[in-house]
């Protein structure tokens, strides 16, 4: 896989955790062939979430978003693979589940935008920023799964 490997940040939001969908979401990424390299179960502070969503701070929904995201535990994860940022966004589906195609995670499991169960990085650059915000270098594990040669040429 070499230089084409990249990482993305995926976070199961409080609604996904409360609905018991963490395993289902992990399974979708594993079945696709992506490699999980970091995972936590945390109750995030408003301060951390304000940093995470800083690009949305001028939007009218920002205070409600931060309050909602700090209302319960979340599961931040780092996934690695070929074109993982773009592919993960496609797997998640549109931000508004009503616009998500069947077969996407949001298309299959969500109804409203305010309960869309997941956050996913929108670029390699934002993935790096988000990973660095949520994980230390030691918490992201470099490893090679035995099946890697059966996923990549």
How would you describe what is shown here?
With 153 residues, the chain is α+β, with helices and mostly antiparallel strands. The protein is built from 8 helices and 4 strands, in the order E-H-H-E-H-H-E-H-H-E-H-H. Strands 2-3-1-4 form a 4-stranded antiparallel sheet. The chain starts with a strand and ends with a helix.
Number of continuous helical runs: 8
User: How much helix, percentage-wise, in residues?
Assistant: 25-40%
Q: Give me the secondary-structure category.
A: alpha+beta
Give the end-to-end Cα distance, rounded to a whole number of Å.
8 Å
Report the mean per-residue pLDDT as an integer: 96
The Cα radius of gyration reads 15 Å
Oligomer: single chain
Strand fraction equals 15-25%
- Give the total of beta strands: 4
The sequence of SSEs as H and E is: EHHEHHEHHEHH
Q: Could you name the ranges where pLDDT drops below 50 across 5 or more consecutive residues?
A: none
**Within the largest sheet, what's the order of strands?**
2-3-1-4
Q: Which descriptor suits the 3D outline? A: globular
Largest sheet: 4 strands, antiparallel
Characteristic key phrases:
153 residues; alpha+beta; four-stranded antiparallel sheet; 8 helices; 4 strands; 16% strand; globular
Quick summary of this structure?
This protein is α+β, with helices and mostly antiparallel strands and 153 residues long. The protein has 8 helices and 4 strands; from the N terminus they run βααβααβααβαα.
Topology record:
Layout: E1 5-12, H1 14-18, H2 22-32, E2 35-39, H3 46-52, H4 62-69, E3 75-82, H5 84-92, H6 105-109, E4 118-120, H7 124-134, H8 148-151
Antiparallel strand pairs: 1-3, 1-4, 2-3
